[in-house]
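Researcher: Can you fold this with manganese (II) ion in place?
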Amino acid sequence: MNIEQYKLNEYNQSALKDHQRKFDFIAADIKSIEAILQKLINFQVAIPSWALGTGGTRFARFAGGGEPRSLEEKIEDIGLLHALNKSSGAISLHIPWDIPENAAHIKTLAAQHGLKFDAMNSNTFQDQPGQQHSYKFGSMQHVNKAIRKQAVEHNIEVIKYGVELGSKSLTVWLSDGSCFPGQLNFRKAFQNTLESLQEVYAALPGDWKIFVEYKAFEPNFYSTTVGDWGQSFLYANKLGNKAYTLVDLGHHLPNANIEQIVALLLMEGKLGGFHFNDSKYGDDDLTVGSIKPYQLFLIFNELVEGMDAKGMNHATGLGWMIDASHNVKDPLEDLLQSVEAIMITYAQALLVDRNKLNEAQNNNDVVTAQEILQQAFRTDVRALVAEARLRSGGALNPLAVYRSEKVRDNLIKERGSKTVATGL
Ligand code: AFD
Ligand code: MN
Ligand code: MN
């Protein structure tokens, strides 16, 4: 299914007067409005190929109908999102869930929708049919060299697929760890993992990056071999300058100060990529901004501050990706909500008066510092984000158009009501 540009224009036309009033109101207060709008227009968030189907829990999966049955249909779905919001211009693939059988064809299809290929993701947390060795007791950390080798070779294969598609990075998330005390020698597990990562690193093309994603727990519940940012940072430092840490918002222990982690990783030049989602308890993979929007703002505040301090391009300096999955929503509607939350929060972070904040910090003026941040966070920037979308040819209100156009019903008609997308 396609949403024609003239349709979008019609919807926009009917909402224009209302939008203009709201935009003029906020624009009047912002000095560098054009520069901010341009940053919003440039900012793109990659959609994970595994988030287009209804997510499951370990108890059940309630498929929603019209789910993409192939990589082609996943690309079409992201194309729809991007046509609506103009901020989802990339896809992040998981191998072997989404092997591009015909890379040239997949690349062309993606380009037709204005999509690029962001980080490739490997998978050594599941056994695949016909696989020689099992990952039951880990992959890159495994006590058996043959199993480590299998994991390394899989990652090298993922890089090859990525090269064919024009991707420039590999994200490695390992579920490796242990479930019970005594199961693992921590030091040996670390060294085995490092050695495996080094072999993958050696196969990275010159212009590629490798992102080492950490996660506190699950599926292992006693120890995780890349369990926190310190461990990821250690691997990234030992690997070399093409290796970075990837922060997934849901991968911390409760109440971790993620904004501080982000600030320090950026300072060290070792923050590579981001997985956006939200959580109440653990790796809940909920819609971005649905639980802790202020935390998200504080993180974006550090991202903008840290990237500016290094003269980095906000849009291209880091890999921006969503990693969310859910079992009670239409995945496409959920992704529209997540991207919107990211854009709103980014816009708020751009509004922070850095000079004044700096001055307040130097004067130990705690109250003013807090006021400056909250002033930005409490500003309703939705019209700003909508204006950026309008200028890029997207919809003023993507979700409303999605519903009016009955996108899900159409997808069910095209694909059937009992389709299940690959993923978890
Ligand atoms: C995991 C990680 C990781 C991985 C994904 C698989 O967040 O990014 O690729 O889930 O679905 O929890
Ligand atoms: Mn993740
Ligand atoms: Mn996760």
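Model: Folded with manganese (II) ion in place. The chain is about 50% helix and 10% strand.
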